[in-house]
Amino acid sequence: MLETLEKKIASAERISSEEAIWLYENAPTAWLKTQANSIRKKLHGEKAFYNKNIHFEPTNKCIYSCKFCSFYRKPNATETDGAWDYSLKDLDEKLSKYAVDDLTEIHITGGVHPDRGIDWAVELLSHIKSVRPNIHIKAFTAVEVTWMCKVSKVELTEGLKALKEAGLDSLPGGGAEIFNPEIRRKIAGGKAPADRWLEVHGAAHNIGIESNATMLYGHIEEFTHRVDHMKQLRDLQDKTQGFNAFIPLRYRNENNKMSDRNEVNQEEDFRNFAIARIFLDNIKHLKAYWVMLGVENAFASLDYGVDDLDGTVDDSTKIYSMAGSIENPTLTSKFLIDEITKLGRTPVERDSLYQELVR
């Protein structure tokens, strides 16, 4: 089987779901590393990408209570409970810390607030563009978009068009979790189902809003569920070509309702990246989100098909730090450049749509 798959990979022939499951169950890690690396080199040479970004999480109040989430607080929670609702003034204070050249992207996701619809999002987006007209706004998960459209009683495409007109440049990949209905129900009961996530991203692609895709792994799912998840992403990408990057997100087990589950080990992370690189032949970029994975492991993943390390982040996200990952997630551009160079790769600053920037 390995020889057969090696020939298919060398000739850029698509592998099947059954073959991907076989790789999870049987392929030696060293073999996966070699194959994923060969694909990465064909796509990107020795380039390793990063960008200058911050995250803004407007609220952690949420109508959903996903078992894996350490970020969530009840809609009626107070500051004493660890809840927050940031204002436009709070956002301005955050942005004021950075010169124009220090940021190319603001990434906005948060809890699904019960009262916030499209009008609230339009006000937020318009405000950001008024103070930082050239910054790329990557904002709102498909779950957030779905709820905002429901609150405002607008059809999905109408809502997306309003967001785009107000300044939305792309969608992040969050909220995908795992697509299998049974697993999704157990860990994220009540949240918008997989077909809605795919519908939102497909509708966004159709009106010129590009996006990323994620998969939460390492909890109660099995290899078949991971492959099914990636297959559905691959199928949508065949239709729309709107996904820029795939980002496997490792489950972290602190301070949530699944804390009794052990996290997967480093080797499983690397195997997962490699198989994703082999299977997702139509999504060009594979990202290791260092905030979740850890800095050392993220850099090591560059040998397993990964070509992108996300960005500087600068202590601006709490979603993963509250679940037990890096407490103060901050990397400088210099650090990223130096470490990528030490590994024999070429550091490339990019914008949010993977256009290379020359400083």
Major β-sheet annotation: 5 strands, parallel
Tell me the name of the CATH homologous superfamily. Aldolase class I
> Tally the helices: what do you get?
14
Beta-sheet strand percentage? 5-15%
Helix content: 40-55%
Assembly annotation: single chain
Using only C-alpha atoms, the radius of gyration works out to 19 Å
User: What's the N-to-C terminus distance?
Assistant: 46 Å
CATH architecture grouping:
Alpha-Beta Barrel
CATH class: Alpha Beta
Give the CATH topology: TIM Barrel
What would you call the shape? Answer: globular
- Which regions have little confidence, pLDDT < 50, spanning 5+ residues? 318-326
- Count of beta strands: 9
**Average pLDDT across residues?**
91
Tell me the domain tally: 1
Order of helices and strands: HHHEHEHEHHEHHEHEHEHHEHE
**Structural class computed from helices and strand pairing:** alpha/beta
Detailed description of the structure:
The strands form two sheets. Strands 1, 2, 3, 8 and 9 form a five-stranded parallel β-sheet that branches. A four-stranded parallel β-sheet has the order 4-5-6-7. The chain is 42% helix and 13% strand. Helix 3 crosses helix 11, helix 5 (118-131) packs parallel to helix 7 (156-166) and helix 6 (142-152) crosses helix 9. 47% of the residues are buried. With 359 residues, the protein is α/β, with parallel strands linked by helices. The chain has helices at residues 2-10, 17-26, 29-44, 88-95, 118-131, 142-152, 156-166, 181-188, 194-206, 223-240, 266-279, 290-293, 295-300, 333-342; strands at 47-56, 105-108, 136-139, 170-171, 210-217, 243-250, 285-286, 308-313, 346-349. It has 14 helices and nine strands.
